[in-house]
Amino acid sequence: MxxxxxxxxxxxxxxxxxxxxxxxxxxxxxxxxxxxxPELSAAAGTRVRIRTARNLTEAARLLTDDVDCILLDLxxxxxxxxxxxxxxxxxxxxxxxxxxxxxxxxxxEPVSERAGELxxxxxxxxxxxxxxxxxxxxxxxxxxxxxxxxxGAQDYLFRGELDARVLSRAIRYAVExxxxxxxxxxxxxxxxxxxxxxxxxxxxxxxxxxxxxGLSFAARYRPGRSRALLGGDFYDVVRTPDGTVHAMxxxxxxxxPDEAALGVELRIAWRALTLAGLCGDELLSTLxxxxxxxxxxxxxxxxxxxxxxxPDGRRAGLCLAGHPAPLLARHGLPAxxxxxxxGGPALGLLPRARWPRRQVELGGAWSLMMYTDGxxxxxxGTGGSERLGQDGMVAMVNSRLEQGLAGEELLxxxxxxxxxxxxxxxxxxxxxxxxxxxxxxxxxxxxxxPRSHPASSVAGRPLGVQRPPx
Length: 470
Description:
17 strands; alpha+beta; five-stranded antiparallel β-sheet
């Protein structure tokens, strides 16, 4: 029996069991394809449903999500069938909407001298971009068949060779090829999106402005979000014209892209306000206004630690806004936490909060480590029931200092040990920066920091160059 014309109803995907196939045959002669449903099912090794459409208008009604493959007769005219209003016109650029105008957004234009002969295929590819399409043509028209594949069909069949076995194999091949093409296209889009995001995020990471300060700088940054370069943690270091070096590190509560964006806004605002001459309580009060205007919810807050180091490098002003106190290591002495009792609340918690500025003596040769709580909140001990905490971090850093580590090597060893103690990757964002001053070493290099950083020195890296994130 010839291929029957089924009732024109959409078959829900839920009714199609795993492995079943649905084929939509589009040709104006219902008896042109004489393969029966039992023959095709037997050749395919699974149940096959066949729907037939006499023209493109009828095909559009029968085209549902459960259709696996379309078999299109390339000889099918765009007009014909007499199905009433809405039938596409004979113009190869017709969109099939009955208006006679081309829809470049949905119909791929075949770049071929035989575009007119491929008009039906072009139309089907436009209305069924997610479906596998087989082109059916005459035996002696190999050129047209090959052109159909170049335009977008998954394969072609010759009418004279059509039988159940050939059609079954072609359907399976076309469906799998379409799935592979779709997956490859999605993978390519995903990679391009990831590369774009990476370029954007990398461009938003800070470039320290320290030239002429004589201080060394090292930093490590690792966002908690998977495959991200930016997190809610942020930091920056700039030197103002009066010779003061200003350093900042902060943490926006949360780990999503909104928190990362807010962190970037706060960092840029801090740099602008610092270069404009603000510091201490005045700067933090203004920064809180920025946060209040830019945050998505009133529950969002940010912790912050700012340090302004005097031009002679021996003293610093410290402001804490709900943030852990920095770690100071003087030459030949163990590292210790700076005072934190006079700190103020996190930004965004109290509308009229104040942030006192405490004067800190740094000494002649020193290194100052600023960090976010991601470094100290990792788990330690059997079963991970305890947190590392500030005391654990101080002990860990001192043990590394006793080994002669400094600068980048010190930060790398510290972060690696925190991960190891945690038993795996940290879930929170981690930002750590290390500023150092070594007058003897600076004098040896003619008043400026060296361009190399041996492990035995306090210096961490060349000045003004941003180290990639962890």
